[in-house]
Amino acid sequence: METKITELNHHTDPATKQMLQNLVERKLKFDHAKKAHLYFLWTGVFSAFFYMYYIYSALIKPYSYSVSTILSYFLSNSLHLFFLLAIVVLLGGAKVLFDRKQKTEKEYHALRGEIIDRSKDLWKEDAWRNRHHVFKMMKSEYDINLYHESK
Questions:
Q1: What's the angle, vertex CA 99, arms to CA 48 and CA 2, rounded to 5?
Q2: What are the tens digits of pLDDT across the range 74-123?
Q3: Given 3-state DSSP classes, what are the helix, strand and coil percentages for the chain, each rounded to the nearest 5?
Q4: HSE (CB half, 13 Å, CA atoms) of 141?
Q5: Sign of the Cα pseudo-torsion (102, 103, 108, 109, in order)
Q6: Nearest-angstrom CA–CA distance, 71 and 23
Q7: In angstroms, rounded to a whole number, what is the distance separating the alpha carbons of residues 10 and 16?
Q8: What φ, ψ does residue 148 adopt, rounded to 5°?
Q9: 35, 105, 121, 21: CA torsion to nearest 10
């Protein structure tokens, strides 16, 4: 369990601490999925741009008089097809990672919304007046907003 969460002794009970820990883990999982998606996406986009520039300068510009010459030169070198396949794999991986990012974001916001909705049950009596300490710590340490439910 995160040290900042375990230090909330008098503000929360163990069940609430476990919910906050699960929320932090889902936030980290969402952030990781978001970074991986962006990495694959931008790598694929830049690779596609440079590949198209290479195809234009090495094939289309010098052999623009004949489409059949362009195609035969393109198909004669297996590296052209290999790089085309690599770019397709990168962009396909970006799509798969986008779906995974969407799923982890949905799980994260569902748990965050549940904590916000159940905050009256989680912090009772004296702890209700001091819950802003927990909310402030979660916002400053983990960038998790528990003040209101909108993203």
A1: 115
A2: 999 999 999 999 999 999 999 999 999 999 999 999 999 999 999 888 88
A3: 80, 0, 20
A4: 15
A5: positive
A6: 54
A7: 12
A8: -145, 165
A9: -30
DSSP 125: T
Each residue of 51-86: pLDDT tens digit? Answer: 999 999 999 999 999 999 999 999 999 999 999 999
Three-class DSSP category at 120: helix
What single letter denotes the amino acid at residue 57? S
Radius of gyration of the chain (CA): 25
Half-sphere exposure of 74 (CA within 13 A, CB side): 21
Are 17 and 1 spatial neighbours (Cβ–Cβ below 8 Å)?
Answer: yes
- The first and second tokens of residue 106, run together, are 């949905």
